Amino acid sequence: MTLSTTLRRSSLRPAAAVLAAAGLAFTLAACGSADAENAAAEPAGDAAETGGPLDLADVCPSTVVLQQDWQPQAEHGSMYNLVGPDYTIDADAKSVTGSLVVDGTDTGVDVEVRPGGPSVNFQPVPALMYLDTDIMLGAVTTDVAIVSAADQPVVAVASQLTSSPQIIMWDPETHDGATTIEEAAAAGDPLVTSGEVIPALLESQGIITQSQIDTSYEGTPQRFVSDPAILQQGFATAEPYIYENEIAQWGRPVGFQLLSEVGFDVYPQALTAREATITEEADCLAKLVPIMQRSQLDYLEDPTATNELIVELVEAYATGWTYSTEVADFSVQQQLALDIVRDDEASGVFGQLDPDRMAQVVTDFGEILLEAGTIADADIDPTSLYTNEFIDTSISMGE
Q: Span of the secretion signal (predicted)?
């Protein structure tokens, strides 16, 4: 793969980049006709037992709409894993729809998964959910929920990725074998990011200085390849593989540390609903949330078919984003190897949100966002941002 091709793959996914785009105009996706259809036309699966935990027909909308925060990738596996084999792809509207299937069982409703990022003019997911109330659940990282709390309040109902896969990366040769961000940054080289949240967090801990902050990152590898002295944001689930295997001009390992190890303790892409949805669709969520909990674990156990769908969608949407099966497989490996997906430490339940952790995130990031002028008031009740009422406490990675 050439450098110019790979430039389109590296993303501006951090919350700060999405928030910075909040003022862009938004046009709801038109309901275009499906211009790509799964030729296999396989049966969706065996019908769920009437009234059973997998029967959604009487409690959920006929189509459950799920909104992602970026283009299709393996970090979104729990949503795409629910799309049955009878799916259709609408390349114009950028969506995939099929029977909502759980481990071979048809739940009686359809599921539609929509990508974010350029497909929606980079609008934050809370804004999308308020513009289109058909969206049942969206992927919303905690700091984005803090920003939207005043005008577009949303409530997380389950985590999927337990900690953030975001990293700071560097060239280990240039940085003398550094193994931590602090070691790599010690010489004073620039830290290149796409927003102010991450550098503000690192500066508050004394890991970097104000003079090192450079928020000019555009989501491409060009600068890193040409200037290996810099430190740069990335994702543990993508960049280490891409830089070593798919960027010929680099072709070697990168050093990195997870930002979650230095205080970036947000819940990334948590399954989130509008405040009104929590009450209006309570019966649906009571069944859907446990299905989502299990879907993430089922996906990680057997990701092959879902990864093939993700790559197919990337190709069909043709937005300039590129994503290979190899990167998807690497992402799954990293999610498990680095404990990016794990049970909640406090409860031992997969998907449950920890009250103490949520309170600390609001304290830490509320101050950062207030100082940056992103929010006007950091006095936010952490309990307003999440609920565990729909969680199935019997679900864990060790079950």
A: 1-36
| CB burial readout 308-334, b (16+ within 10 A) else e | ebbbbbbebbebebbbbeebbebbbeb
Distances (CA, A) of 256 to 119, 139, 229, 262: 30, 25, 14, 12
The per-residue pLDDT for range 161-208, each reduced to its tens digit, is 999 999 999 999 999 999 999 999 999 999 999 989 999 999 999 999
For the chain, the structural domain boundaries read 31-163+266-385, 166-262
- Judge whether 31-163+266-385 and 166-262 match in fold: yes
**Model confidence pLDDT, tens digit, residues 61-97:** 999 999 999 999 999 999 999 999 999 999 999 999 9
CATH topology (fold) of 31-163+266-385: D-Maltodextrin-Binding Protein; domain 2 (3.40.190)
Query: What fold characterizes domain 166-262?
Result: D-Maltodextrin-Binding Protein; domain 2 (3.40.190)
Q: What is the pTM of this model?
A: 0.90
